[in-house]
Amino acid sequence: MDGFTPWPVSFREQYRKAGYWQEKPLASIIEEAAVQWPDRIAVSFNGEHTTYGELHRKVNRLALHLAALGHRPLDRMILQMPNRPETLYLYFAAVKIGVIPIMALAAHRLAEISFFAEFAAVKSYAIPGIYAKFDYPGLAAEVRTKAPSLKNVFVLADEVPEGMLPLKKLLNDPIEERIDGKAIFADLRPDPYEPAIFQLSGGTTGIPKLIPRTHNDYYYNALRNSDICGFSKDTVYLVAIPMTHNFATACPGWQGVFLKGGRVVLSSSPAPDAILDLIQQERVTTVPAVPAIVINLLNHPGLSRYDLSSLQTFHVGGSKLNEETARRVRPLLGAGIQQVLGMAEGPLFWTRPDDPKEISWLTQGRPMSPGDEFRIVDAQDHDVKPGEIGELICRGPYTIRGYFNAPEYNLRAFNADGFYRSGDLCRLHESGNLIVEGRSKDTINRGGEKISAEEMENHILAFPKIRLCAYVAMPDPVLGERAALFAVAREGESFDLAELNDFLLSDRRIARYKLPERLELLPELPVTAVGKINKVRLRELIAERLKEEQG
Ligand code: OOB
Hints:
The chain is α/β, with parallel strands linked by helices. It is 34% helix and 24% strand.
């Protein structure tokens, strides 16, 4: 596909021969599961259960509807769907005929969605109706005016506006009785070497990046993860984080559960009450979580009232888990932890279920696959001495070789040997596991949600009262980090955070989680010796001020 950087031929051969790449399309996960365990429950949501057999039938039906609507392999579809079973049906329906879902977040707004729609020339867009008080069909109508390629808007709601397609109706319409599904599926079978889905990058630049994950690599990603996490048909996996994020999709994610015949429980809320209720009701064994969720669970006042005896493991990643929190998990929640350092670009490091507990408290783990290669390097791309801090760079059978359609940026994001530069500063622990010590990339990690400083500074500089600004991380006890804004006002202007944020939401139409949560106005910003804004100094400054305020 145009804009996609494949692995060099020698690597392709190597990964195929080693058995990492099985040349299977992603949808075979569901096809094979439906043959092996037709009557087992695959998904539970709101007390309703769907078997693998039903899941497969729904996927096929929806795939035929997509084909009948003119979808063809390598067309793109924005998937901005909540944690609901229908999201799974649509995901597998799309990938079954090679349509590439773009895994958007519910929080994205016009700025982000219209960018994806235009950049990837999408054919379709899938949304809920009014959800969490937001009018998604209203957003879709606006996106349509900006992206002429957008033909179909699928809406998961009882009331669907004129000109958009009702997902529930399609799911109830037996199209397979009218057309020859076998022939269509044979005709539209995707090439496993091509992109199957686009994940989103946390991004370090002004515009977000799309991450092409192939059928081969994403299938392997889920399979190998599910092996090292010990998944089986007894796994009950609770998804309370956004289900379209790479973590919940494929690490091992619901794909990893379906490969082993386990059960996925979906929660539409990440609130501790919702999570604890579901663990008890559904006898959950495994929960993927960002550290903020773990902290909220540990601090829940009614924790002892719940029966959490089914729990085995928390998978904790997305941002750094501190050791003190890690130590409290077993005594208070009765479960072990596996830490995961993961990236939508591919690389995954895990502690293993049978590691000594100190390793699982202290480190972010070691490579997921024997095919992974990683180095810890200095600014000149030389290996640092063992135990020293440097940037983590990676290459392997499920790590991309380039962002979609970004040739110039790719020259910086990957080294000459094709290693992905993670921007994470790490050191190697004597046990062979990595410890994340910081990062060199200019992003904010707000409880696992990544925000590009440059992207936000561009939006903020459009505010007429600001002359100069720097968007930096400030420490937060639960989320790890929040965003603070240092700004210099234009002469004679004054404003407050509420006015700026109102502008960012109403004029710039960005996702709310990216808003700065504190504003510091200065007469000038500190600069480095070469005249760049000194963000290191600003991060220290805000950390000092917060400390002073807390006494
Ligand atoms: C996951 O993926 P992304 O793409 O949202 O974010 C990747 C970045 C990493 O480069 C690193 O900066 C940070 O998130 N990160 C961690 C971490 N896990 C991710 N930093 C410290 N400790 C960790 N354990 O966040 C992601 C993807 C798959 C599985 C899990 C997380």
